[in-house]
Amino acid sequence: MKLYDLSHLLNNETPVFPGMGKLRFQTAATIEKDGYRETRFEMDSHTGTHMDAPAHMLKNGKTLDQLPVDTFAGKALIIPVPENAELIEKEFLLPFEKQLKEVDFVLFKTGWSKFWGTPRYFENFPTPDSEAIEWLLNFSLKGIGFDVVSADLLKSITYPNHFNILGKGLVIIENLRFPDALTETQGRFFCFPLPYENADGSPVRAVFGV
Amino acid sequence: MKLYDLSHLLNNETPVFPGMGKLRFQTAATIEKDGYRETRFEMDSHTGTHMDAPAHMLKNGKTLDQLPVDTFAGKALIIPVPENAELIEKEFLLPFEKQLKEVDFVLFKTGWSKFWGTPRYFENFPTPDSEAIEWLLNFSLKGIGFDVVSADLLKSITYPNHFNILGKGLVIIENLRFPDALTETQGRFFCFPLPYENADGSPVRAVFGV
């Protein structure tokens, strides 16, 4: 199986959602002084390529450590979205019905990750509308992934997609990136979160295998 | 494929190698106040179930972000070590020769993880001797995993196993745990590190698939 990395690189310059805490990587030990290298890092649970647990938004939603580990791996379908789409609608998804019946994850590839590191990344990125998400939730999915910072429109204040997806017990993966070399749309997806207690979310190393 | 979690749960009480920085999980946002949950966390790169990069000990060793993502997944053999063994010797490994030719990872299961959370976890845990490691390095491996805190004896000050393994470009996985329900010894192993820059190591969600 050939593996592709769908994750953004993290460092002290990694952009974070407006208002969120920044990342902080510090040298904790050096070969010259200590005989080994070690790094201390600090970040918010929804940093970089990351996963939202149902507990991120829902009072009684499950945390990631309450979900079985096979929640985080499975068959996946990448749905390429036309470059100038502002909204992903149900009509656009209908032709994927047959493929959707066979997978655990849907990953939306809008190409927006090319703006990662620029202010535009956080402006007017494309997302599915509520009807599209509700239709998707008829399938037997474990999670839905996005190569944008949020499953909901930036201007949304009610977060309908978050509430719909997490409310069904699925996980959300945000800030994915798709390498140019990855041209296949069907494969295996791995997105294992850090195993911490009461995890409302976690950065993940998202990987696609073909 | 049935997946088993080989990782210890992280929280503010997670034991760390003597002298290392402690973990710190803090609430960053709550549903009551902010409408969503978020956690800020802080830890050293070699915390909990984690991976050592060649750069952890070697001046010119590669960091995890310099290694292709398929370094972190592959076929694995679990080698169960008799409960009272103090040292893992080459003679003990010889019968596994045929199986070792077919895998990418060797994972030593000594059962020591039952002492996790107690002072004994850091005392006189079993490790392979140099001859055993040198023999293992004749095979075509990506990494070697341990259910103890270090690939080297606690009292070691020269870290021969670290230098031998990392010097060959392999990764080391430490602080694994093997669930009782996992009785198979051959399967797939996944240990994707966080994608951060100049990564000398990283906590991982280690997973075994049968």
Brief descriptors of the model:
two-stranded antiparallel sheet; 13% helix; 210 residues; globular; nine-stranded mixed beta sheet; Glucose Oxidase, domain 1; alpha/beta; 26% strand; homodimer
Tell me briefly what this model is.
With 210 residues, chain A is an alpha/beta fold. Chain A has 5 helices and 13 strands.
Can you walk through the features of this model?
The structure is a homodimer of 210-residue chains. Helix content of chain A is 13%, strand content 26%. Chain A has five helices and 13 strands. Chain A has helices spanning 31-34, 90-93, 97-100, 130-136, 160-167; strands at 3-5, 24-29, 38-44, 50-52, 73-80, 87-88, 105-109, 127-128, 143-146, 171-174, 186-190, 201-203, 207-209. In chain A, the strands form three sheets. In chain A, strands 1-13-11-5-7-9-10-4-12 form a nine-stranded mixed beta sheet, covered by helices on one side. In chain A, strand 9, helix 5 (160-167) and strand 10 (171-174) form a beta-alpha-beta unit. At the A-B interface, strand 1 and strand 3 of A face strand 1 and strand 3 of B.
* Lateral arrangement of strands in the main beta sheet of chain A: 1-13-11-5-7-9-10-4-12
Number of helices of chain A: 5
> What oligomeric assembly is this protein in?
homodimer
CATH class of chain A: Alpha Beta
Globular, elongated, flat, extended or rod-shaped: what is the shape of chain A?
globular
Q: What is the CATH topology classification name of chain A?
A: Glucose Oxidase, domain 1
